[in-house]
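note to self: dont lose this again. the chain is below, predicted strucutre after it. 153 aa total, dont forget to put it in the shared folder this time
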Amino acid sequence: MLRQKKIMPVVRELIESARGFERCSAMHVRELGLTPPQFDIIATLGNTPGMTCKELGQKTLITKGTLTGVLDRLAGKGLLERTPSPDDGRSWITRLTPQGQALFEEIFPLHIAHLNPLFDSFSDDELATMRQQLRRLREAFEAHNAHLEESAA
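---
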């Protein structure tokens, strides 16, 4: 019970931090003329040769059901294209068009500049420690989830 009392405030801060970040980020992304899922895809595909939808789903926070619709809308705007994978005839490679890459190069630095002041009060050492601790937490979740998936199989 004592351990639970120590963990719950950390969980609460993690949730509230994620919510705060999401609200701050989403408001700015909308000012840039995109929805958060559209920005997530453009930011993930920017400066890459593209990736399969499966890879894109793993690297973004977008569910599979939402992903297809967002990709269709971005393709309709001429910002991304899908081509058959040379390695797997059943999958497609999704990549930014030159127009999509230009949009990425325009808005990604603006969004990072928007977020920078939120981190200005942290020293470089504090940011490095924060990143390390968050990575350890993410890895713990990933290991736990992998174990659950193995048990279910």
